[in-house]
Amino acid sequence: MTAGELRATMAHLASSVTVVTSVLDGEDVGMTATAFCSVSLEPPLVLLAVGEDTRMYDALLDGSTWAVSILPASARDVASRFAARGRPSDRLLLAELAWRRGPVTGHVLLDAAVAVLECVTEQRVPAGDHAVVIARVVGVRTHDPGASPLLHFRGRYRTVGPAASAAAARINPARTAQFPDEKCR
Ligand SMILES: Cc1cc2nc3c(=O)[nH]c(=O)nc-3n(C[C@H](O)[C@H](O)[C@H](O)COP(=O)(O)O)c2cc1C
User: Fold this and answer.
1) From the CA of 33, how far away is ligand 1's center (Å)?
2) How far is ligand 1, taken at its centre, from the CA of residue 175, in Å?
3) Protein residues with CB under 6 Å of any ligand 1 atom
């Protein structure tokens, strides 16, 4: 099995898209991440896999604080921008967005997020070319419970829900008739 085959296979795992935020060298930093999931309710733990070649790898050390904004369907451009290598400055990206500081950690939380979490790293486990960061959740907020999330599936950003299937029907009625249960586009 090659790395390409593994990547292509894992692309079939639909994931929510988040922007993880923290501080590095005194500056707010953000990174698009899909390798984020819930681990435990008691105690409240979540997990994030961070690539060793990212700035977030240096920011999310043991005991560090960070935050997660789960992106809405409308935020494809936000996801793309915070995933761009060599972008000039996250401060400039954030200047174009509405956000506020988390009440517990003080990290950036995007106003447009479907939901936000604030976290404190408890364990950092080296795992190949990533680190698995296990963190305690110290704050949560859900914004609009009816909002559709942004998903990443087979290498593309997608949306789910009635709005997505209605739009898909307008774009390609034949395809929607062929796959009536398909809710992605
Ligand atoms: C859809 C998508 C999901 C991503 N998920 C992750 C992830 O879960 N963990 C990670 O370390 N990088 C992930 N990345 C890559 C980072 O967003 C990208 O490498 C980013 O440029 C790193 O930030 P930096 O350039 O400031 O280090 C993802 C990229 C995309 C487009």
Assistant:
1) 5
2) 32
3) 17, 31-35, 49-51, 54-55, 83, 85, 152
Q: Which residues lie across from 123 on neighbouring strands?
A: 134
The answer to whether the CB of 149 falls within 8 A of the CB of 160 is yes
Containing domain of residue 51, as a range? 16-153
State the Cα–Cα distance between residues 79 and 89, nearest whole angstrom. 15
Is residue 31 located within the same domain as residue 72? yes
Among residues 47, 23, 28, the alpha carbon closest in space to that of 133 is found at 47
Q: Is the domain of 183 the same as that of 149?
A: no
> What string of pLDDT tens digits covers the 185 residues of the chain?
999 999 999 999 999 999 999 999 999 999 999 999 999 999 999 999 999 999 999 999 988 999 999 999 999 999 999 999 989 889 999 999 999 999 999 999 999 999 999 999 999 999 999 999 999 999 999 987 788 999 999 999 999 876 555 554 454 444 434 333 334 34
pTM exceeds cut of 0.85: yes
Pocket test for ligand 1, best of 21, 25, 32, 52 (most atoms within 8 A of CB): 32
